[in-house]
Amino acid sequence: QQDFVIILGEQLSREGKPSSVLESRLDMAIDYIERQRFQYQTVPRIIVSGTSTGAESHVSEARIMADYLVDHGVPPETIILEDQARNTHENFIYAKGIIQANTKQLKTTKAVFVSSSYHLYRSQLYANMEGLYQMSGVGAQAMMMERLLNWVREFVAIIFMHRKLHLAVSCLMIALGIINFV
After folding, report:
1. In what order do the strands lie in the sheet with 45-49?
2. What is the distance between the alpha carbons of residues 64 and 180, in angstroms, rounded to a whole number?
């Protein structure tokens, strides 16, 4: 039984509608929320997170996501809009603030986040960076081509997340290689 479900945003389509990736996240969240409603007769608070994505867009990802959820039967009073986050790390920074404002104990609050399956590992790293260790992820399915392309993107993003560590290890390996060669 969760207190909060955080849905991570994704760029909108050119028409200002949820992209296929975002739609699959929203559909997964709806399924999860419905299971919560069936099992516990309650709907958790839902944080939709994401700012407007593009100069031509005047509506935030969060607003589009909230409208989609309401159109699919999610009670509007359970939805909290977080429309400032521009990336995954900020999703968790701002969501943490919302959770803290709505609960007494952050560490005992039960929450999950919904993202794409290929994005779960890096999302969990960001949640942990914000001290949200009790939080886990629910992965929405992605098409095989999306997964392949985005696994590469996720790999590069994780390397850049820890660039100082990777630079230090690379320097150490080069130094050991030189010592071994000499």
Report:
1. 79-82, 45-49, 4-8, 111-116, 136-140
2. 58
CA distance 127 to 123: 6
Of residues 78, 79, 131, 126, the one with CA closest to residue 105:
131
Give 58-72 pLDDT, tens digit per residue.
789 999 999 999 999
CA geometry: angle 72, 74, 77, nearest 5 deg: 140
The answer to pTM > 0.85 is: no
Rounded to 5 degrees, φ, ψ at 43 are -110, 125
Interatomic CA distance for residues 130 and 136, integer angstroms: 13
Q: How far apart are CA 69 and CA 66, in angstroms?
A: 5
Kindly state the tokens that stand for 170: 């690379």
Helix (H, G, I), strand (E, B) or coil at 140: strand
Residue 95 in tokens: 């969501």
Return d(Cα 81, Cα 63) in angstroms, integer. 7
